[in-house]
């Protein structure tokens, strides 16, 4: 389990993390989301004892990282896939980690097989692609068979097959009862991987909830309707003060149920080809919830080009 209480980090006058409190519990994949500059990486570094908090605490299994008697057997982390010495082979790197933590050498070949690097175990890490480096980082995180795991952008550099593999891998780790915290900017991937979300913006907590609840609470209910009598249906919906707009040859009705729309159409003899409730995507919900917490906004193209276009 990971517990953060009142976690705060200042760099001079800049507040990177601001009184942040949350818990990450075992048995589920917890997605750690936020815009660029939100404080995700700084938070992870404080959890792992790499940055000292200005205030507050971060505990792993009830203790600060610095007080863990066997850190690699308690928590595994992948924060930077390219930190490995480039002239060491994958196997040598893992053997070095194992020796430093009194982990049996036999475990090295086990984790290399787990992440699919057995065939390249003798090759220099400096020649690895980013995707292979990510797999080596995962192997290092799993070396001590820890109950707690932290991954920062673990799918960077992976091809679609690799992304599918790591999604299933993280889910399996959670199903084994481990605590899994994963940060990612690929929201579509988090929608398929995470069970729970912790969302921050400008260092502050925005949401700590299940994925489905996050999407539902930050988006409006809509219903997509298609009919051969679409103009008449639009007039009827407007007469009932239903919020309606046209989109891709269909009507999108906001704030109403499909039952209410179907009943209205039936009472007026209108045939329906489609009557489908819609749910916002995680990306849409994320943008609505964090729009005010984005540190850097892109300028419009006309502003960038001086209004030339």
Structure write-up:
This protein has twelve helices and 13 strands. Helix 4 (106-114) crosses helix 5 and helix 8 (211-217) packs across helix 11 (282-290). It starts with a strand and ends in a 5-residue tail after the last helix. It is an alpha/beta fold and 309 residues long.
Short overview:
The protein has 309 residues and is α/β, with parallel strands linked by helices. The protein has 12 helices and 13 strands.
The proportion of residues in beta strands is 25-35%
What is the string of SSEs from the N terminus onward?
A: EEEHEHEHHHEHEHEEHEHEEHEHH
**Number of discrete helical segments:** 12
Give the overall shape: elongated
Strand count: 13
Distance N to C terminus: 53 Å
Helix- and strand-based class?
Answer: alpha/beta
Spatial extent as radius of gyration: 24 Å
The overall pLDDT average reads 87
Please summarize the sheet with the most strands.
6 strands, mixed
**Into which percent range does the helicity of residues fall?**
25-40%
Low-confidence stretches: 296-309
Strands ordered across the widest β-sheet: 5-6-7-3-8-9
